[in-house]
Amino acid sequence: MLARVPDRLRQDVLDEWQGICETTEVRHQWKMLNFIVNRARGEDWVPDHVERVRARRQHARDARAAEREAALSRAGAPAPSGPPEGWAANLQAQLRRRGSA
């Protein structure tokens, strides 16, 4: 169903669907999703719930990151610096160094 929507709008469609389902009683959620998909395919689609759902998701993500940092701090471990991608590159570099030693 989401394949009918441009890639850049797919998360917006899901966020709009979530927001509608949270704020109103939706009896047929799949029909509602299909309705949103069809609206999002048009140029005049203006979502009402996307920003609120996106902000709440970001807030939850920030809260989880703060909790991880607090747990690491309590354990005496240094807090990670940089994005998770940096961790992967750092780990790969360490593994390469160990393999060449």
Tally of alpha and pi helices: 4
Low-confidence stretches: none
Work out the strand percent: under 5%
How would you describe the shape? elongated
Please, what is the average pLDDT? 87
Number of domain units:
1
Largest sheet: none
Amino-to-carboxy terminus distance: 51 Å
Topology:
Blueprint: H1 7-23, H2 29-40, H3 50-75, H4 84-100
Helix pairs in contact: 1-2, 1-3
Region (Disordered): 56-88
Biased composition (Basic and acidic residues): 60-71
Biased composition (Low complexity): 72-88
Structure characteristics:
mainly alpha, 0% strand, 4 helices
Question: What do these coordinates show?
Answer:
The chain is an all-alpha fold and 101 residues long. It has one domain. The chain has helices at residues 7-23, 29-40, 50-75, 84-100.
Summarize the structure.
Residues 56-88 are annotated as: Disordered. With 101 residues, the protein is mostly helical.
